[in-house]
């Protein structure tokens, strides 16, 4: 492990020097690439330097104790420093193992989120709206931007389905754990008897595809235009600006009607189509790998019930990691960090365990 860390530190110093090279500064593309790599290495190198500092303290303390000649009070102080340094080295070493875990190549990408009402009819549609609001408020807290791609709204203001893009640093790294079935338990406003109903909503989180990754033959596309419509069939505008794209070989259909411009709707729809095809390609590759990691966290299985939102108890439970929080109102208002941080920690622990078992 430490041989690897030395290589990374050397590379880090090289990048630091290159950032001030006039030929690099004058080339935005090269400079951006160097900055990205430098930024990616920074947490690892800083943690490694903490380890080296703790190790130096430990060695110095050992040497002083071995040489002897210390009065009682000073010796006790050196012994305490030695024990603290050993504890620090152990803790930092575990942190370094986690930082050395392979990074998900999609982590820094923007995402496309698709929310669909499942069992529960209108109540599921209303909860789809609540989840869209939750992700929107969470995005705002992290200074990410949200763009609606397509929305199928109901009379009561819910969504049968809604898809939207979230753009910002690390969006996929934090939102990828949201894929799956979200279950809600609450008393619907339309329920006269005050009985608790259970409804479900499906969330899919897709990393946005780069143009170079998915090559689509225009001959494989059927593109239809139609008029954008809102709840109850009322026309938002009179022009045929909405776009429906069908990828004929796979049967994947994408619609976009949020923009008044047909060109903008087509551009958004193509971005979603590419991301869906990339996701299908990735799933196919994963299925072909015999030793694929099947962690309980972040599997992205859309049939998996991942979370329950219980309104009467003000409770959220994430079933993958057994996490229960009694702060449902805060979470639905976008305070998702505690949940997501716990999922990330569990995922890293599972990866680390698998890595260690693979080395035995």
Characterization of this structure:
The protein is α+β, with helices and mostly antiparallel strands. Helices cover 47% and strands 20% of the residues. The protein is built from 9 helices and 11 strands. α1 (2-18) packs across α3 and α3 runs antiparallel to α4 (72-99). The longest helix is centred in the N-terminal third of the chain and has 40 residues, at 28-67. It is globular and about 90 Å long.
Layout of SSEs?
Layout: H1 2-18, H2 22-25, H3 28-67, H4 72-99, E1 111-117, H5 122-141, E2 145-153, E3 159-167, H6 171-175, E4 180-186, E5 197-207, E6 221-226, E7 242-247, E8 252-256, H7 262-288, E9 305-310, E10 315-318, E11 323-325, H8 328-332, H9 337-359
Parallel strand pairs: 4-9
Antiparallel strand pairs: 1-3, 1-5, 2-3, 4-5, 6-7, 7-8, 9-10, 10-11
Helix pairs in contact: 1-3, 3-4
Main features:
globular; 9 helices; alpha+beta; eight-stranded mixed β-sheet; 360 residues
State the low-pLDDT regions, or none. 231-237, 288-302
SS-based structural class?
A: alpha+beta
Shape: globular
Radius of gyration: 26 Å
Number of helices: 9
Q: Oligomeric state of the chains? A: single chain
As a percent range, the share of strand residues is 15-25%
Q: Mean pLDDT, rounded to whole units?
A: 84
| Termini Cα gap | 15 Å
SSE string, helix = H, strand = E?
A: HHHHEHEEHEEEEEHEEEHH
Helix content: 40-55%
The total count of strands amounts to 11
């Amino acid at each position: 492990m430490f041989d690897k860390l030395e290589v990374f530190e050397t590379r880090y110093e090289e990048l630091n020097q290159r950032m001030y090279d006039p030929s690099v500064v004058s080339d935005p593309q090269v400079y951006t690439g160097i900055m990205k790599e430098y930024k990616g290495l920074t947490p690892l190198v800083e943690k490694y330097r903490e380890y080296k500092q703790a190790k130096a303290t430990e060695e110095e303390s050992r040497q002083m104790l071995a040489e002897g000649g210390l009065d009682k009070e000073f010796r006790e102080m050196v012994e305490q420093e030695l024990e603290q340094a050993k504890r620090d080295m152990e803790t930092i070493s575990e942190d370094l193992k986690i930082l050395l875990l392979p990074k998900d190549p999609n982590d820094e990408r923007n995402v496309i989120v698709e929310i669909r009402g499942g069992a529960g009819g209108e109540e599921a549609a209303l909860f789809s709206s609540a989840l869209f609001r939750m992700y929107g408020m969470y995005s705002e807290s992290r200074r990410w931007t949200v763009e609606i791609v397509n929305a199928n709204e109901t009379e009561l203001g819910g969504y049968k389905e809604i898809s939207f893009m979230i753009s910002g640093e690390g969006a996929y790294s934090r939102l990828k754990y949201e894929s799956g079935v979200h279950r809600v338990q609450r008393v619907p406003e339309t329920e006269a008897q005050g009985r608790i109903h259970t409804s479900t909503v499906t969330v899919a989180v897709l990393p946005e595809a780069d143009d170079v990754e998915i090559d689509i033959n225009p001959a494989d596309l059927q593109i239809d235009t139609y008029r954008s419509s809102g709840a109850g069939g009322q026309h938002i505008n009179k022009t045929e600006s909405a776009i429906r794209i069908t990828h004929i070989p796979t049967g994947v259909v994408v619609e976009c009607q949020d923009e008044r411009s047909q060109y903008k709707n087509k551009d958004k729809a193509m971005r979603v189509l590419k991301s869906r095809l990339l996701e299908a390609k990735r799933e196919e590759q994963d299925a072909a790998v015999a030793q694929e990691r099947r962690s309980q966290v972040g599997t992205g299985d859309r049939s998996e019930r991942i979370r329950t939102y219980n309104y009467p108890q003000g409770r959220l439970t994430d079933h993958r990691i057994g996490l229960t929080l009694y702060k449902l109102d805060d979470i639905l208002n976008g305070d998702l960090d505690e949940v997501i941080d716990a999922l990330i920690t569990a995922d890293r622990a599972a990866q680390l365990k698998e890595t260690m078992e693979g080395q035995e």
